[in-house]
Design goal:
elongated; 12 helices; two-stranded antiparallel ribbon; tt1808, chain A
């Protein structure tokens, strides 16, 4: 939930900077002038203190990154900035990833003032990153609440509320790989079989037949193949394994309690012997 004052600030300041960025793009200003605008954007749109929270003096192995964002004396974002007329490419992202890899900073922003890309770094071999969200500051509709939620994860107030972490968790959950793995899981196919039987008036389809159609005709291949797909499938299997284990433990406990109750309940013979 975006705080009211932040929401009002976004609605008020974004249109003004849209005009500034349009003019800068028309003039094809250089990287230094673009970076000056980006600093103002961080101050006026995203709520940072330009002199206390922003620094161009953050050194990574003897090289200074374009801009770094500090919060509670900790670097929270590293920013790789290019001139507004430059199309952002993978090589630019690689620069940002290298800075993060060598400094241990988990979040990076790649921007030319107009286009913004926010990444969560994955410290693995080789280092990579999840593109959490992106937006074009010139073209976006600031009246759109979903757009403002994207902007909020960059805001200083959003850092204080862990908004970017929540947004990242949502990204990890609502994506084509996890949904594809979920749809093709045994548990969901079981429900599909049951519903197909109801809809068709009793026609039986095997799990194998349903899975073949889903994987071959309904879902795209890249949803079910590759490293990300395998990770999603593993996550689904682990989840249902935990559910199955928890259910078994509950059933075993209920069984033990029932047996204990039955053993504690006196039989008619016990009662008869007691009254003698």
């Amino acid at each position: 939930m975006i705080p009211k004052r932040v929401d009002e600030r976004l609605i008020k300041t974004v249109p003004r900077f849209q005009q500034v960025l349009k003019t800068a793009k028309d003039r094809d200003v250089n990287e230094t002038d673009t970076l000056s605008i980006i600093k103002d954007i961080f101050a006026e749109i995203f709520g940072y203190d330009k002199y206390m929270d922003l620094t161009s003096e953050y050194s990574v192995r003897g090289t200074f990154c374009d801009l770094a964002i500090k919060f509670d004396n900790k670097i929270e974002f590293l920013i790789e900035a290019k001139a507004i007329g430059i199309d952002l490419k993978d090589s630019h992202l690689r620069q940002a990833l290298d800075y993060c890899a060598n400094s241990g900073v988990q979040w990076a922003i790649l921007t030319n003032g107009a286009s913004w890309y926010i990444y969560k770094i994955k410290f693995e071999q080789p280092i990579s990153a999840d593109l959490i969200c992106s937006f074009n500051l010139i073209d976006l509709d600031i009246k759109n609440e979903e757009i403002r939620e994207k902007l909020y994860i960059v805001c200083k107030e959003g850092l204080a509320k862990d908004a970017r972490e929540e947004f990242h968790e949502k990204f990890l959950t609502i994506n084509r790989f996890l949904l594809g793995a979920l749809i093709c899981s045994d548990e969901i196919i079981f429900h599909i079989r049951r519903e197909l039987r109801k809809v068709s008036g009793g026609v039986l389809a095997s799990s194998e037949e349903i899975l073949k159609v889903l994987s071959g005709e309904v879902l795209k291949r890249d949803v079910l193949e590759g490293d990300e797909a395998i990770k999603a499938q593993s996550r689904i299997k682990k989840y249902y394994s935990k559910i199955a284990k928890r259910t078994k433990e509950t059933d075993d406990l209920n069984k033990i309690e029932k047996e204990t109750e039955e053993s504690d309940t006196p039989t008619p013979q016990d009662i008869q012997e007691t009254t003698k």
